[in-house]
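Homework help board

Subject: predicted structure for assignment chain

Our instructor gave us this sequence and asked us to write out the predicted structure in token form, then describe one feature. I got the tokens but I'm not sure how to describe them. Can anyone check?
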Amino acid sequence: MVNKKSRNEIRVKKHRRLRNNLSGTAECPRLAVFRSNNHMYAQIIDDAAQKTICAASTAEKAVAKELDKTNNVDAAAYVGKVIAQRAKEAGIEAVVFDRGGFLYAGKVAALADAAREEGLQF
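My token output:
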């Protein structure tokens, strides 16, 4: 009998390994990304103060009304644009990117590229 771990268990284990080397500070906070089946979430976090500086997701009414679907690459790119704009308003120029154990492809890459295009550096 094969005892295979679920994809989520593998992702959580990868994320724990990544978080051992990533940490956000007040000068350079962490951009954390989470992707569910229906939504994309992005937060900018100061780990030293244990505080979320700003956040954006497709679950927000203001963001969702701009989108046709909330679970595709276009939606992820729009969330990247929104989080970068909110970061600029909060005075943040550079961040450390935390992909949350997800592969850097598809929706995660689209979010990161859109955030970079809006001027967020990482």
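Reply (TA_rk): Your tokens look well-formed. For the description, you could write something like this. Strands lie at 30-35, 40-46, 51-57, 96-98. That's the kind of observation they're looking for.
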